[in-house]
Design goal:
The complex is a heterodimer of chains A (1231) and B (263).
Chain A (H helix, E strand, L loop, with lengths): L1 H8 L5 H9 L9 H8 L5 H15 L47 H17 L3 H15 L21 H8 L36 H5 L38 H18 L8 H4 L22 H16 L6 H12 L9 H4 L17 H14 L1 H5 L3 H8 L2 H6 L1 H13 L30 H24 L7 H15 L3 H19 L14 H6 L2 H15 L17 H11 L2 H19 L13 H33 L11 H11 L8 H10 L3 H13 L9 H16 L12 H15 L8 H4 L4 H9 L13 H7 L4 H18 L18 H18 L3 H45 L6 H12 L5 H21 L6 H46 L23 H16 L10 H16 L6 H19 L16 H18 L12 H9 L6 H12 L5 H11 L6 H16 L6 H19 L1
Chain B lengths: L4 H10 L7 H10 L5 H19 L6 H17 L5 H9 L3 H16 L6 H9 L7 H13 L5 H24 L4 E3 H6 L8 E9 L2 E8 L6 H17 L6 E4 L15
Parallel strand pairs in B: 3-4
Antiparallel strand pairs in B: 1-2, 2-3
Helix pairs in contact in B: 4-6, 5-6, 6-8
């Protein structure tokens, strides 16, 4: 093993190749041939590498973490099952705290190969480890490095035997291939006498049979209550209490040695010869000096090596080669928060001549090394970290060591913290204490006789009486369940004669169990349960604060390390003790039947599968509901399975595994006969196939966690474990692809499986031994379609609820903060508790609270769908109410604002004053009306909610239930709507009025004339008029033709012109397609056209001689235009263009000049009121500036003077004739 | 009416360096009698615009402007009534309206102290009567009415077509009883860039889901599709108005119902 690590360190083998090598038995094609060769020679050792690595790390860290929280781990306790070493000498089967993976004896091949590999490395040149080793040894004597520990210190963890033995050890050239040279962390050193000094293995006398039976306890876990019965004996008599695992036989010896060690250090410390101050400092005691040594990135001793090992370690974690992901994270965080290095023995400070190999120098020479390593690993594990709860992320992000060693990681963690919504409380929420009555099943009709019914009722009363008493008294010191209640329970059980009564009672028991324990965390405990009205008297925000304070007060500082044994917390304890005290075979059997049935039922429950891709907020709300439902089902299943496991394995439960092999074999033979209480293997296989592992595995783990020692050896359960192991391996977190399991789903499974692998009853070597069936497993799951696994059903809350031990990470970090807060400033924020002074003076709140409690109680006795319906209705109606208020009340107010503004503008003139001021005035007038919103909102909810509830609830719902549900829905909807409205209505009105004001002012501004009255089409209009664009285009063509240049054959027919003007009339009368710019252009073009008509410039198609419009035709066209201008145009027509120099110039160019049409037109214009005389005069006046031929100016003057002088004529038609005649006369006279 | 790519290419081929005049359009109509005038004009206009975009710069060098101005002065000096400016534009292969603008700008520079503002020039082009020089006014007017691709009249026609098509589209939606929100309603809801219509209930057309409709009322060649996509449609996408769209780029006012292309 060491050889593998060595070759990695010497970079002969890449990390990737090594991990592939560990993870897969088959050789990968990606491997470099050289690497493959190097590794294939070590093949037999493959399985042992990971345990070796973990042991190695634990061992190396032993000096740093001697006192902290335990770092549990579990690994093969014996090598007996390893191939090729059936007769290996017995090893310490049960280790001390950090006795992780007791070293395995190398097989003969490995022993032969490994040294050669090492030699090969040497030939190639000194590895980095060797180099460092050399320097280290020198530096130590010179005191240059300043590091606390000598490079070889790791080989000799504290108290390695008598002073005489180390020299003996050192005189031997170190044999790295001998795994026994590398003792496990904290392994109990041999006593001073009688053992080979080179071995650090505790020579616990263990028989071969025992080692074969793989006896073990939960390594380094705190005291195990896995045998929960008060009747059963508890084997743990560890003198160390929490810190050390039970069964460590040589603890006494160890204590003895510690004492010696301490006295030795006390002697040493004053001597100046001590190489470094730190190494001489006394062991930090548990209660004593907690100040941590500052960690400095600049003082890390062997970066490259640490980086490499961190990479290998991280890769193993990533590939799920370690049994428990969170345990490793815990270990890494321990390293991160290591306070100081434990002093090493003086003898270790001396250089060891032969120890030049990289592995021989200690990995962690100082706290700096530890922190560096930890941060490296954390960097690789960032993805997992980012899914932890917000509190943990915060603590990590605020960890000053982490910031110091990797600001980048700190930044990512901070970002993850800021983006996280996963607030998880570590406190155990109070459970619902209500006692349920099930009228449907508990009525007389379900009993065989009146007597049975009455018996059942009596029993029910006894049961609840017992329960109440337990609730009241179980926390009293000195109260004992068995003593207090045992006889009453047994007496009650004795009355359950008929089988049917048993089943009734079991149903009651199970319902009560689910009700009390499953909500919401599955644990219980009446935390602040006595004072619910105190809580309800506080406001919601204060309540939140109080909760946090409460959490801080009641959250257990440590609930048993990262791998606690299975326990029955809170009210679960009642049910466990009840079962034990009842000790009724019938009851147990009925309970098992009932639990199995319920598990099957829940496990196959079709959970709805909404589209996970919806990003909409609305569906997110639904998704929340699905998630909640999933959590409910999962937690119920776990609870039921736990109790099923408890009852099913109860008869076989014992404190110790069978002592001899023969006994074990006979037990196995017996047990393999017994069919399982529930065919969990089939359910697991189904679950895997249907991709519902995320539902099935967590409860299965609960079930298995209560198995006895023999169970994992039974073929049936062994195959389950094999399946679970392969599942564990397949849950590679970094793999994210279509059809993969969701990250948090995987994390949940990894956490529960990792926990299972650490359970005392599960053989510790199980994890590392299973091989082979990977393929069959994969084939199994390929056939599945999209199941629950691919959906984000797990959130952090559920994860932490199922696996409270993940919270240990947070506690560890928090304890670091509180330890170091004196120095680094207060990380722990103070929560100022709300005082209770105002409590008495708020009776209405209390009634409200009572009302809420009544509502809760009401829902409690109704099917859950009723509650969901009512909540849904309240939610939607509340939201609709707000929308309705916006559309009605607010819209009305906006209209009022607009009219008020208009008035204001009229009175103050067009200016109207400062818009901001206007807005203020309006708002001050209107906002008070917002108060109506609440009444209207209330009315709306009152009106709408009952109907919705009625529509959604079953027809058959009793009237009273229906009306209560309606009332609650009304109340909730009103509450929701009014809360929003009272907070936002003023701002909303303000915003809308502001928008309206700016709209009005803008509209007021630029074109008041253009906004004049506009007529639409007549009602009969069918919008068949030619399109304006078409007309503009047509008229443009005529204009272009008239202006030229044109081909000789080009021209327009008078009919076409007439038709064009007709179309123009149609278009102007049908307003459907007309927009103001188009109309303006049409108006302008029509004036241009008139000018061309007047100047006789339009080329007419027809007989070659003609080429000109007849007078009559021209006049007819002008008449059409005049009527269009007068009646149809709704935009101002630029008639003054008729008299523009350019258009008059057209006339000037013609010879002979013909004025009659122009005069006719002008007269008509005046006549129809389209142009005033003054206007014409002004236009003519401006004409004088233009340069005309002289005669033209004169003609103009003579012609227009009479026109302008003419008095207004009352008879237009008559006058028109006169005009024509006059014109003719004038023209004739001129020519 | 769907125009095939081949037909389109054929039309576009005929339009290489053709002056944007009435006469050119007439010839085009004779060549492709099956196509409506509006379609042809739209394609003509787009092709010509592409051409102008390519050559625009060379007409705006100071040398070019000076030489055009001199030629204009010489031309009107010889005969003020002749279509000097129009001929000049056709000769140098530039849009008459744009040539008129160049000359007008140059003219005003010479005759006024301050360089003319853009709005003054635009106003004079809209109403050439405001041009102080009568001859130039006539010349400019002649250019504008004879240009079928540029100028204030053409702009107005295009605008009118756009408006008409929106109205037609709305009628069509109403006729098919498709519920929609129009641009004004959307703007009131706070969208900044909005398509013409958002369907409140999406529909499927030829296998495509349609969420919103934007009427462009112009011929949808590849180039304009690309440009609109870039300038407008992506922002609809970004403002999550729906990922499926329909752009109506039609070619003729009478044939609004034709979806020439769709993405």
């Amino acid at each position: 093993m060491a050889a593998v690590l060595e070759s990695l360190l010497r970079e002969e083998v890449s990390v990737a190749a090594a991990v592939r090598w560990i993870a897969r038995s088959a050789q990968s094609s990606e491997d470099d041939p050289g690497e493959a060769a190097a590794l294939s020679s070590l093949r037999p050792l493959r399985k042992e590498f990971v345990p070796f690595l973990l042991n190695f790390l634990r061992e190396q860290s032993s000096r740093v973490l001697p006192q902290g929280p335990p770092t549990p781990a579990k690994a093969p306790g014996s090598s007996a099952a390893l191939p090729g070493r059936p007769g290996g000498p017995p090893r310490g089967g049960r280790g001390a705290r950090s006795q992780l993976f007791p070293p395995t004896e190398p097989s003969s091949t490995a022993a032969a190969e490994a040294p050669s590999a090492r030699r090969g490395g040497r030939r190639r040149g000194p590895g980095p480890g060797r180099e460092r080793g050399g320097r280290g040894s020198g530096g130590l004597e010179e005191g240059v490095s300043g590091e606390s520990s000598p490079w070889a210190g790791g080989r000799r963890p504290r108290g390695s035997g008598s002073p005489g033995s180390p020299s003996l050890a050192r005189s031997d050239p170190p044999n790295l291939s001998n795994l026994e040279e590398f003792p496990p962390v904290g392994s109990v050193p041999p006593g001073p006498a009688g053992t080979k000094p080179s071995r650090r293995i505790n020579p616990t006398p263990v028989s071969e049979e025992r080692s074969l039976s793989k006896p073990k306890t939960c390594f380094t876990s705190p005291p195990i209550n896995c045998v929960p019965s008060s009747q059963s004996s508890v084997p743990d008599t560890s003198p160390w209490g929490h810190g050390l695992p039970p069964g460590c036989r040589s603890l006494q010896e160890e204590r003895e040695m510690l004492r010696k060690e301490r006295s030795k250090q006390l002697q040493q410390s004053p001597t100046p010869a001590c190489p470094t101050s730190e190494s001489g400092s006394p062991l930090p005691s548990r209660t004593g000096n907690l100040t941590a040594e500052p960690a400095d990135p600049a003082r890390v001793s062997s970066r490259q090596r640490l980086e490499l090992i961190a990479l290998i370690y991280s890769s193993c974690i990533a590939e799920n080669l370690v049994p428990n992901l969170f345990l490793e994270l815990f270990f890494v965080l321990q390293l991160l928060t290591a306070r100081r290095m434990v002093a090493t023995k003086e003898s270790d400070l001396e250089p060891i001549p032969g120890a030049l190999d990289s592995l021989e120098s200690p990995l962690f020479q100082s706290v700096h090394d530890c922190v560096f390593f930890a941060v490296q690993v954390l960097e690789h594990q960032f993805q997992v970290l980012s899914y932890l709860d917000k509190g943990t992320l915060k603590l990590l992000a605020e960890n000053e060591r982490l910031l110091c060693f990797s600001p980048a990681l700190q930044g990512r963690l901070r970002a993850a913290y800021e983006g996280s919504v996963a607030k998880v409380s570590l406190a155990m929420p109070p459970s619902a204490q209500a006692v349920s009555f099930q009228p449907e099943t508990d009525n007389r009709a379900n009993f065989s006789s009146d007597r049975a019914f009455h018996t059942f009722k009596k029993q029910r009363d006894v049961f609840f009486e017992v329960l109440r008493e337990w609730e009241d008294r179980h926390e009293e010191p000195g109260w004992d369940f068995e003593k207090g209640l045992g006889s009453r329970i047994r007496a009650m059980m004795g009355q359950l004669s008929a089988a049917c009564s048993h089943s009734h009672f079991v149903r009651l028991f199970q319902k009560q169990l689910l009700q009390m324990c499953q909500s919401p965390s599955g644990t219980g405990g009446t935390v602040l349960g006595e004072a619910p009205d105190v809580l309800s008297m506080l406001g919601a925000d204060k309540l939140g604060r109080l909760r946090r304070l409460q959490e801080r007060l009641v959250a257990p500082q440590s609930s048993g390390g990262p791998c606690p044994p299975p326990t029955f917390p809170g009210c679960q304890g009642f049910f466990r003790d009840f079962i034990l005290s009842a000790s009724s075979f019938q009851f147990n059997q009925h309970l098992m039947d009932s639990l199995s049935l319920k598990i099957r039922e829940l496990n196959s429950l079709a959970l709805p599968q909404p589209e996970p891709s919806d990003e909409d907020g609305e569906s997110d709300v639904d998704w929340q509901g699905e998630r909640r439902q999933f959590a409910m089902v999962l937690l119920s299943l776990r609870l039921l399975a736990k109790f099923l496991g408890f009852v099913a394995f109860l008869p076989y439960r014992g404190p110790e595994p069978p002592p001899t092999r023969e006994l074990q074999d006979s037990i196995l033979a017996l047990r393999s006969q017994v069919p399982p209480a529930l065919d969990v293997r089939a359910l697991l296989q189904q679950g895997l196939r249907a991709r519902r592992a995320v539902l099935t595995v967590p409860w299965l783990v609960e079930f298995l966690s209560l198995a006895d020692h023999i169970v994992p050896l039974l073929d049936y359960y062994r195959s389950i474990f094999t399946l679970l192991l392969h599942l564990h391996r397949s849950l590679v977190l970094s793999k994210e692809s279509e059809g993969e399991m969701c990250f948090l789903n995987k994390l949940l499974l990894l956490a529960v499986l990792g926990w299972l692998f650490q359970i005392p009853t599960v053989p510790e070597d199980l994890f590392f031994l299973e091989e082979g069936q990977l393929d069959t497993f994969e084939v199994d799951t390929v056939t599945s379609e999209q199941g629950l696994d691919g959906m984000p059903v797990v959130d952090q809350h559920l994860l932490y609820t199922c696996c409270p031990y993940i919270g240990e990470l947070r506690k560890l970090l928090a304890s670091w903060v509180s330890g170091s807060s004196g120095r680094s400033g207060g990380f722990v924020r103070k929560i100022t508790p709300t005082t209770t002074t105002g409590l008495g003076a708020q009776p209405p709140r209390t009634t409200q609270g009572l009302q809420a409690q009544l509502a809760q109680a009401f829902f409690h006795n109704q099917p859950p769908s009723l509650r969901r319906t009512v909540e849904f209705v309240a939610e939607r109606i509340g939201s609709n109410c707000v929308k309705h208020i916006k559309a009605t009340l607010v819209a009305d107010l906006v209209r009022q604002a607009e009219s008020l503004l208009q008035e204001q503008l009229v009175t103050q003139g067009q200016e109207g004053g400062d818009p901001a001021q206007l807005l203020e005035i309006l708002c001050s007038q209107l906002c008070p009306h917002g108060a109506q919103a609440l009444t209207r909102g209330r009315e709306f909810c009152q009106k709408k909610s009952p109907g919705a509830v009625r529509a959604l609830l079953p027809e058959e719902t009793p009237a009273a239930v229906l009306s209560s549900a309606e009332n609650i829905a009304v109340g909730l909807a009103t509450e929701k709507a009014c809360a929003w409205l009272s907070a936002n209505i003023t701002a909303l009105i303000r915003r809308e009025v502001k928008a309206a004001v700016s709209r009005t002012l803008r509209a007021q501004g630029p074109e008041p004339a253009a906004r004049g009255e506009r007529r639409g089409c007549s009602r009969a209009c069918e919008h068949h008029a030619p399109l304006p664009s078409h007309l503009i285009s047509e008229i443009k063509d005529v204009l272009a033709l008239a202006v030229g240049p044109r081909d000789p054959e080009e021209g327009v027919s008078p009919e076409h012109l007439e038709q064009l003007l007709g179309q123009l009339g149609q278009t102007l009368r049908c307003r459907q397609f007309l927009c103001p710019p188009a109309e303006q252009h049409l108006a302008k073009c029509s004036v241009e056209l008139a000018s061309l008509l007047v100047a006789d410039q339009i080329p007419v198609l027809g007989p070659p001689v003609q080429h000109r419009l007849e007078r009559g035709q021209a006049r007819r066209l002008l008449h059409m235009l005049l009527s269009l201008w007068k009646d149809d145009f709704q935009v101002p027509v630029p008639l003054q263009l008729l008299l523009s120099p350019r258009n008059l110039g057209l006339l000037a160019d013609t010879r002979p000049r013909e004025w009659d049409l122009l005069l006719f037109l002008l007269r008509e214009l005046v006549e129809k009121g389209l142009m005033g005389r003054t206007e014409i005069e002004a236009c003519l006046g401006s004409l004088h500036d233009a340069q005309w031929p002289k005669d033209f100016s004169e003609e103009l003057a003579t012609l227009f003077n009479p026109l302008l002088a003419e008095p207004h004529m009352p008879e237009p038609q008559l006058r028109a004739c006169e005009l024509v005649q006059t014109n003719r006369g004038t023209v004739l006279a001129q020519s | 009416m769907i125009l095939t790519k081949a037909q389109y290419d054929e039309i576009a081929q005929c339009l290489v360096s053709v002056p944007p005049t009435r006469q050119s359009l007439r010839k085009l109509k004779q060549r492709f009698p099956s196509q409506s005038q509006a379609t042809l004009l739209s394609i003509f206009s787009q092709e010509y615009q592409k051409h102008i975009k390519r050559t625009h710069a060379k007409h705006h060098t100071s040398e070019a402007i000076e030489s055009y101005y001199q030629r204009y002065l010489n031309g009107v000096g010889r005969n003020g009534a002749a279509p000097v400016l129009l001929d000049l534009a056709n000769e140098v292969d530039y849009a008459p309206s744009l040539m008129a603008r160049i000359i007008l700008e140059r003219f005003l520079q010479e005759h006024e102290e301050t360089p003319p503002s853009k709005s003054v020039i635009n106003s004079m082009l809209r109403d050439p009567s405001q041009i102080p020089d009568g001859v130039l006014a006539n010349q400019v007017y002649q250019c504008i009415v004879n240009d079928c691709c540029y100028g204030p009249l053409v702009d107005c026609i295009k605008h009118a077509i756009g408006h008409e098509h929106e109205v037609l589209l709305r009628d069509l939606l109403l006729e098919k009883s498709l519920s929609f929100l129009d641009e004004d309603q959307l703007r009131a809801k706070g969208y900044d860039k909005t398509p013409d219509f958002i369907l409140q209930v999406p529909v499927a057309v030829e296998g495509h889901i349609i969420h919103w409709i934007e009427s462009k009322a112009s011929f949808g060649d590849e180039c304009s599709h690309h440009a609109y996509l870039h300038d407008q449609f992506w922002s609809y996408w970004n403002s999550s108005l729906g990922r499926h769209s329909c752009r109506i780029l039609t070619s003729s006012p009478s044939a609004t119902r034709d979806r020439s292309t769709n993405n």
